[in-house]
């Protein structure tokens, strides 16, 4: 290694110059003399790096955990909204079916009224059926309003044009078109189709959530 010369010449005015000679130090000697300082710097830097990595890992794990918790909450909200939507679809059919049946009875009573010389009590029966029809229609309108609200809420769970929910909303659009169709029995087909699509969506989203949760546990370990 290189050697360091450290000869020093001192001159004092009106005095004899004195030359101090110091034995030259080699590189290893310099290194050993500064070893405590170098060790201190290394320890400080190492501690800082380790602390930084631990903090960053902790922040990342915390961030991932928050995302996982959000997805669990999101899935639960989706389940509850889907369940309420199916119930509301059933109520829409039920109230409109009851209205259709009552209107049939009303038309039959009106026919009897005109062909039987106005039998006593027929007028009261017709008026009663009219009130029942009105009540069922009001109930239908309330259920219909709830349906539109739940459908809009369901759309908020997905991106616009999301392929995963495309078939579901196509089914709901068809249900809206058939909602006010006169019927004398309930049709479970659109409800079952909507349930099947919702189950498929929930299954796919749950698989994504499980994978994220597993990755989080691996990172934390």
What does this structure look like?
By secondary structure, the chain is mainly alpha-helical. The chain has two domains: 3-50, no CATH class; 69-220. It contains five helices and four strands, in the order ββββααααα. The longest helix is centred in the middle third of the chain and has 81 residues, at 35-115. The radius of gyration is 42 Å and the shape is rod-shaped. The strands form two sheets. Strands 1-4 form a two-stranded antiparallel ribbon. Strands 2-3 form a two-stranded antiparallel ribbon. Helix 2 runs antiparallel to helix 5 (189-220) and helix 4 runs antiparallel to helix 5 (189-220).
Task: Put the structure in a nutshell.
This protein has 221 residues and is mainly alpha-helical. Helices cover 77% and strands 5% of the residues.
Helix vs. strand class: mainly alpha
What count of helical segments does DSSP give?
A: 5
Distance from first to last alpha carbon = 47 Å
Strand content: under 5%
The value of Rg in angstroms is 42 Å
The low-confidence runs, each spanning 5 or more residues with pLDDT under 50, are 1-10
Average pLDDT for all residues: 78
Number of strands: 4
- Work out the count of structural domains: 2
How do the helices and strands follow one another from N- to C-terminus? EEEEHHHHH
Strands in their spatial order, largest beta sheet: 1-4
User: Strand count, sense and closure of the main sheet?
Assistant: 2 strands, antiparallel
Mass-distribution shape: rod-shaped
């Amino acid at each position: 290694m290189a050697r360091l010369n450290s000869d020093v010449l001192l001159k004092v005015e009106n005095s004899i110059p004195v030359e101090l000679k110091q034995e030259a130090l080699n590189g290893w000697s310099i290194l050993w003399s500064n070893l405590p300082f170098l060790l201190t710097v290394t320890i400080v830097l190492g501690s800082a790096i380790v602390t930084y990595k631990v903090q960053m890992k902790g922040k990342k794990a915390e961030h991932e955990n928050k995302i996982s918790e959000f997805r669990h909450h999101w899935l639960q909200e989706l389940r509850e909204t889907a369940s309420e939507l199916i119930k509301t679809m059933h109520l829409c059919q039920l109230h409109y079916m009851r209205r259709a049946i009552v209107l049939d009875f009303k038309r039959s009573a009106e026919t009897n009224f005109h062909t039987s010389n106005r039998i006593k009590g027929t007028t009261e029966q017709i008026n009663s059926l009219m009130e029942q029809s009105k009540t069922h229609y009001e109930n239908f309108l309330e259920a219909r309003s709830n349906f539109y609200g739940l459908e809009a809420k369901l759309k908020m769970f997905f991106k616009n044009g999301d392929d995963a929910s495309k078939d579901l909303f196509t089914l709901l659009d068809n249900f809206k078109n058939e909602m006010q169709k006169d019927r004398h029995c309930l049709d479970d087909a659109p409800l079952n189709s909507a349930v099947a699509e919702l189950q498929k969506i929930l299954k796919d989203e749950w698989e994504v959530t499980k994978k994220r949760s597993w990755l989080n546990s691996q990172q934390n370990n």
